[in-house]
Amino acid sequence: MKPRITPQGDVIFLGWARMAQKVQGFSVVEVGKTNVGESSPSRVRTDVTVNLHMHPDVRMEWESLRKHDVCFLITVHPTLSVVTVDDVTEKKNFSEQMGVRYIRGCEIEGMLDEEGKLIEEGPGSADNKPKFTSNERTFRVLMDPNQYQLDMNRTLKQSQDEVHTTFNIFLRRKPKENNFKAVLETTRELMNTECVVPDWIHNIFLGYGDPSDANYTKLVQTNHTFDFNDTFLSMEHLIQSFPQYQVRCEREDPDVQVPPFRVTFPSNRKRLPPDGPVPTDLEADVITVEPYEKANRGPYPYNQPKCNSIPFTPTQIEAVTSGMHPGLTMVVGPPGTGKTDVAVQIISNLYHNFPDQRTLIVTHSNQALNQLFEKIMCLDIEERHLLRLGHGEEALETEKDFSRFGRVNYILQLRLDLLEEVKRLQESLNVPGDVSYTCETAGHFFLYQVRSRWEKYRTEIKPADGEQRDVTKVHDCFPFHEYFSNAPQPLFKGVSYEDDVIIAEGCFTHIKRVFEQLNEFRAFELLRSGMDRINYLLIKTAKIIAMTCTHAAMKRHSFVELGFKYDNVIMEEAAQILEIETFIPLMLQTTEDNFNRLKRVILIGDHNQLPPVIKNMAFQKFSNMEQSMFTRFIRLGVPAVHLDAQGRARPFLRQLYSWRYEKLGDLPHILDSQEYKCANPGFCFDFQVVNVEDFNGRGEHEPNPYFYQNLGEAEFSVALFMYMRLQGYPPDKITILSTYNGQKHLIRDILRQRCADNPAFGLPDKVTTVDRYQGQQNDYIILSLVRTKAVGHLRDVRRLVVAMSRARLGLYVFARVGLFQNCFELSPAFRLLTRHPLALHLCPMECYPPLRPITYTPQNSVLVIRDMPHLASFVYDEYNRRINALTAKLGRDNVLLEPGTSLPPEDLTEETIEMYQMQLEEGELPPEEPEINPIIAARVDDSLTETARTILESLRQYQDKFPEELDDPPSPAPPSPNLPPGPFSFPMLPMLQEQRPLIGPLKFPLPNKDPEPMEASISEDSRSPINPIEGSELNQKAREMLEAIDNPKPVLPSEPEPVVSKVRDRSELGEDMDSGAQVRKIARMSSPDEATRYLEGDVPGIGDGLSRVSSDERTGRGVLGVEDSVKSSLPIVADRASERAAMLLERMEAQQQETLARSAEQRIHVIQPVVVVEPSPLLADTQTLNIQEIKVEEEVPNTPMDTNYNSGKRTPTMDESSESENEDTK
Fold this sequence. Notes:
Blueprint: E1 3-5, E2 11-13, E3 20-31, E4 44-51, H1 56-63, E5 70-76, H2 94-98, E6 100-112, E7 136-143, H3 145-158, E8 169-172, H4 180-191, H5 199-206, E9 225-227, H6 235-241, E10 246-249, E11 261-264, E12 286-291, H7 314-324, E13 327-332, H8 339-353, E14 359-363, H9 366-376, E15 386-388, H10 404-429, H11 439-461, H12 471-476, H13 497-520, H14 522-526, H15 530-541, E16 544-548, H16 549-554, H17 556-562, E17 568-571, H18 579-583, E18 600-605, H19 617-621, H20 629-636, E19 641-642, E20 645-646, H21 651-654, E21 665-666, H22 668-672, H23 674-677, E22 687-691, E23 700-704, E24 707-710, H24 711-726, E25 734-738, H25 741-754, E26 766-769, E27 778-784, H26 797-804, E28 807-815, H27 817-821, H28 827-833, E29 840-842, E30 863-865, H29 868-890, H30 910-922, H31 934-937, H32 944-961, H33 963-967, H34 1032-1046, H35 1069-1072, H36 1075-1083, H37 1088-1096, H38 1105-1109, H39 1122-1128, H40 1135-1161, E31 1170-1175, E32 1185-1190, E33 1204-1206, E34 1209-1211, H41 1214-1219
Parallel strand pairs: 10-12, 13-18, 13-19, 14-16, 14-17, 15-16, 17-18, 20-21, 22-28, 25-26, 25-27, 27-28
Antiparallel strand pairs: 1-2, 3-4, 3-8, 4-7, 5-6, 5-8, 6-7, 9-11, 11-12, 23-24, 29-30, 31-32, 33-34
């Protein structure tokens, strides 16, 4: 705020704050009379006026202050001319230095409109919000009466200015921080209130007695028959769901053994052993199954009930059965085991079995509550009986409003619609009068007009004694033909008397439900106030009420005053809820005659995942407050149902966390579904941990306390996301997670700079922390573990379980592997992760959607990523290559693009995809091929010969397929159109299918090549000729080197014998890059010897290939030595280097002459900028690449990989960082 004192003694503010505003006006509007026996006023109301001339988002935050939010009024009188935070020192008192004199708390009662009236919350308040003509807003607040009395007494005694006239700052808090007052008040009330816990859970709650006393098998049950409604899909499903019982069906006809079923359990249960033969002396319990038919609800399609389609497992059925019985039900659900589905089915079964009971749903977060509520809406539950309390209903993925205001509006609108139906029925029956005016008149109409006609109809169609049933009577005597004229016709089939009677009864059921609903809505006609209608909806109409545990703690006093009643409590995420927050929802109702009507408590959670968040370390560790009631009950030995089959992740991904559970398998669809049978396109492995070394000499850093960041991992994560988008992955199927908030913000900054403004990339579905992502999932997860010096809080295995269990199809982890795999707590997971190489393995020629079977090993086009700069340069080159090829083919003006489109590799034609899919569907692709991939085969010493044979065979096949491209030099392409400057503002379209790559599939990266992985796959149309404008100096240097190679000097006796050359086949000359790119590379070499080694295929610094192959395989470095082994198997003499040099000279001269001839006709040539990536000797330790750009007549446009960000600040690019190795990152 930067307060400043003026020479006149006034206080002005030169700064601005998001959470505080200068007070424009303050006035006390009411001081309540003192209550009997007290000395302080009963209430103190004041008005505070502030000016909200600011950004609309910040103004909206101020206008969203709700009732009971806590704010502060502050008096600041600085002693310095200008006070800033930099002036504050720890040696002096903060309030004295900043000039803070008074701080008083207040509670928001509401905001006033321009007429001075309080804006109340109610139905339609958001739509009918008053309009303001100025930026000034006035808030009505409640002051603390006791503090107000003390301030007034001090003013009278000391003759000072009144405190309340000196306030000049109005401070608000974050919405989540405003809950503490209500929660503390609820806790205090519970301590001073006689709470009666149900008898059947009393001992368990206190922690003594038999832990199984509250289980339904130990309690006395009064009801043994339950309607499982749509829980079972078939009779076979029911029999499989009760393996420990003998099932007996009352109907032996298989045709009638169809759901729904009523199941009767025995009173004294003796279950069969789960496994093994049945002992002869043990008689198994028998459960009786009774199939029945649901009553016909009406002729309209929407009358048909919604049915469950999930084939529940036996353990899930056991959880549902336990939840339907009275008592305590504990369900332990590992990740992906369907905890939410089980909870929803329990709610549905309770709703249909006990229509008079009310169920309270409590979760830890709004997101979990919304997910639960969205699934409830898909079942056969009346919409008018659903109510969602709290402030998170806006995130519900539905157009319907299930908040208390939305439900009132829904009921009022439904009432009008039903009255219109009554009017239509009245007209069809030719009844005079206005019977559809109110719900009361409609009730009289039903009683005297509708029901009487129905009773008469039933009498007419009932056959007399000895008479046959007449089918035509059912149709002819039906009195509501005209009303049901808009239903599907014919209404009656006329085949069977019984079937037509059922249809007629369904029609009357439809009419009767209309009047039953109107009878329920009659109270809403009598109640005129919005709050009265809301309260009536809460305590009478709603049967299923959902809220968060925080909302329950805040509103307990209101619930108790209203007389809120409920019979069942279901808690999702129970392992994340504090014990006090678990106990409060059990006490939201008053007892009657010291009896608590609570019948069922169902706790669903997973104590192997993250516990409640306790920020105070002393309370967390020494008071054990992070232990939830759910975890405490598990430790006490309370019987629990452990779900044992997951349906989220691939089996290999499941193994990363299944070791924490006793028994965790896979659901059948994990093995049968097509998406789990296909591998992730563009990746060699479904999960991989990538070892990330220090970037620019730095690993983790801490700009603020506990605000950890790792620039290398952040850049790696973003580069992998960009690669996945280039391969066609939808952005909403990718999530980036980190273990620290600092890394989350850093990744968001990089994404905002690189991807947000480029529709070809966009942003991932979410970028958040592991803790915030608990309970959620996505297909592909990119995880950054950040730490490089210490393991940190990931040492908590529960956090590791959450991190490993969020992915469905692919998990890619960036970490300092040596640090985490040596941690004892994390060793089981990292032992599995490190089975794959620690260098990222990609298949760039594959694209989304997945086609390759998961058992099919990639044969070619495997790219090993050495480090983050390698992947960044690869993405950069691939992006520009596709853009350049597209614009060269279509022209910039002919490219019509839409956001979110991706560009697959150009050689992946539609014919190839169709053939691949056909082979996959017909099972022609072998389930598993021998490992002939050179990168994989090179890891085994005895397979080196096979590797060389495979490469030679690939070259022969390629030469047979494209002989003209290997023998004749390619002709230079015409100038490509000019690209717009700046970041690319258009996404990419798929390449034209007729374009053919110059050399076929991309080969794996060889160690003697600079990191230009996609240079080998540049299409013929997009190749660049040698640029004559670069001058003769470059070409002259290359010519001299090539001539020196073509005419080598004689070998002196003192020099060693020339070794057998390891040059590749001559057909590969056009395979690595075009001649122009080769000339540029040769021209930059320091000596002809270096150029000779380049043409021979040998690069200094590679070292002995065999020693590299025998190095640590898990580091991925052994893979880079494969070409040395391959080259040793290709005995080609050194004279081939001179042949290549001569051929390259001829090609260079031909291209230069043709280019100069074209330059004479067209004065200006627009040449594609070429990026040459060379190893920098100055950055050899940090493995950073030196990117040099060859600029021609126009600058290289800005690319998505041009800026690094560290803590939100710009850092030098790769070029800038290469200038000074020791320069700190800004």
